[in-house]
Write a structure and sequence with these properties.
The protein is α+β, with helices and mostly antiparallel strands. The protein has one domain. 48% of the residues lie in helices and 11% in strands. The protein is built from six helices and six strands, in the order ααααααββββββ. It has a four-stranded antiparallel β-sheet with strand order 1-6-3-4, with no helix packed on it. It has a two-stranded antiparallel sheet with strand order 2-5. Strand 3 and strand 4 form a beta hairpin. Helix 1 packs across helix 5.
Amino acid sequence: MSELKPPHDPVEAMGEAYELMLERAGERLHQLEDKTGPQMRKLIEEARDKAVELGELSREEADKLADYLWRDLQDAARYLSETGEDFRTWLGFETSLIGDRLKELFSTAADKTTVELIELEEAASIYHTGEITGPGTLVCTKCGEKLHFKKPGHIPPCPKCHATEFVREQSAE
């Protein structure tokens, strides 16, 4: 398992912590027979608590990252279930642009066998400036500008219009 490095850049450190939380939850997911939404949520909560226990994150930071990770996994699961497309189209770019370990963890947590069991919410997730997101492409709801994330990272304001709300791109074009 990866270890969280001492913070060098606070924004990058949060992205690394998101990835570590996904890794911890993903390792436990492989061990479960019952891969339901509540079980996945529980694994994320355990990973959150571990980050706090080890002093890697404050409780507030860990709570936020757990919520962001859960949102991203639900969004991926919803997309894969509704469209029948593959993980690459949910990302909005070639999977070769993200690290192999991150790709494996994310696709395993949201794969089609797990998708049917994850509780899906009714509407598309809205992503906001200041939050952390997993890999993929976000689209500005105001001007359509695309932001590409090849690893977990901090969502900035739209570089084109400075808006602060985004949705996940629905296909790679």
